[in-house]
User: What shape does this take?
Amino acid sequence: MHNLEKLRLARHLEAVLAPFAGGPGATIGVFRDGETLAHVSGGLASLELGVPIGPATRFRIASVSKQFTCAAVLRLADEGRLSLDEPVRVYLPELPDYGAKLTVAHLLHNSAGIRDMLQLMALGGADLAQPLRRSALVEAVCRQSTLNFAPNHGYLYSNSNFLLAGLVVERIAGVALPDYLRRHFFAPLGMTRTAMVESTAEPVPDLATGYLPEGEGWRRAQHGFPLGGEGGLVSCVEDLALWDRYLSTTGVALAEKLSTQLRFANGLENFYARGQQVRRWRGTLAIDHGGLWPGYKTHFLRLPEHQLGVIAIANNGKTDPLGMAYDAAAVVLGEALAPEPRLPDVSGYAGRWLDPAEPQSADFTLAHGVLSGSAGGVPFPVEATPDGRIAARRGSFVLTCRREGDTLHVEQDAGRVSIWHRVAPGAALPAGLDGTYASADLAATWTIAGDAVHVAGPVVRAAEPWSLAGVEGDVFRIEVPGALYRSVLDVRAEREGGAVRRLHVNAGRVRGIVMEKQ
Assistant: This one.
């Protein structure tokens, strides 16, 4: 890339970041074949102190940490100290025996079926802002009597997988995961500004403060959960560029292992490799992963066929680093990319759609000609697929749709296809819900009174009641307030003799929770 092309890229990124002036912002770095094409920052690392974001600013990169945990596991496997095909219980005997072979490999590929610990804690009344010990998260995982699905029969993003993978590293290596990563990866690569910092209360030099929007202003994001192999890294653009360069050169063997995909039991390929997502984007191989924590967002994109790496990190809860990263890549590669698929007519997608069998629902909104969606309370932009469908542009879940009248043909993980139908707004709540419900898996009770749920869990009683809304028949929704967003639970009331006896609950990363009426 010539100097004038670099200047054009830098000015494009400056324009992208200009709206963040005076508020929390972001930083974007673009690197190619060992060369910095651009590194531009905008906005403030601290609103209180008026400190701008710069090259030295560090951020919590959340789930981008997962590939480093996988790298540690793979290193131990190369040394013959563990086997990816060994059951996890060989290394972590406290994990329940689910009657199926659940391996270390399943953890790394998000195909283990283990329920997400963060969502389990939320269902028990503890939000991310609640200070906890790591043992509480491990106990939540080990309380589960069932899985989301049989190992290798599906994909569902779960932070529990990588918490457990980090514990496996600690058991085998005999040192804490932060020390192992520093010794074997960060120090040798010169990543001196990268560290695993488990406590969100620990002071970190040059760490940007995370902010979330509130009205017309901002509030400091609250986060109290400890962070480990699933998301504990603090880093910066330049350090991640060093990691990208390593994977492209002397670490290419590790890069290949991290991007290795496995097939599900039905023979279909799992797009989630080992702490990385793999797909084709506009004709080229894209390997990427995002990170999300209250007040922080990250996207790390690698396009190895073009020796191109893009890193976008923000301390602004309203940003879209995924979009920023792909936009920057498109500016650099230009006509080398295949044309972007065009969206079909999306005018008929707006509304609420339901798969009553699960139950599971999603909302689509059309505003100013732009379609967006929300599932489980998580908003997502929509993109076109090469075969003429629409898909959620978000790697943490799979949702690809084709509309036929008032039905949606929805493909999800492992090729799972179901037919959803449109539901009318304003449905009443199912009759007879009032009462107290309990789940041993959650070690929690829910007391429903009218249109509110009062929750008492193993760690804390929910600070405010949750709200209920009817969907259709005996299917309803529960909205759970949280530090990141209001998550949505899809619930079906099961009756015996006409009376409600239990609730079947599905959340975004937790399926099949049963609450028994007391």
In short: The first strand starts at residue 26 and ends at 32. The chain has ten helices and 29 strands.
